[in-house]
Amino acid sequence: MAEDFAIAPEPFDSADARWALAQYVAELVARFPDGFDPDRGARPVEDAFTPPKGVFLLLRRDGAVLGCGGVRTESAGIAEIKRMWVSPELRGRGAGRALLSALEEQARRLGFSRVRLDTAAELGEARAMYAKAGYVEIPAYNDNPYAAHWFEKSLG
Question: What is the pTM (predicted TM-score) of this model?
Answer without folding.
Answer: 0.93
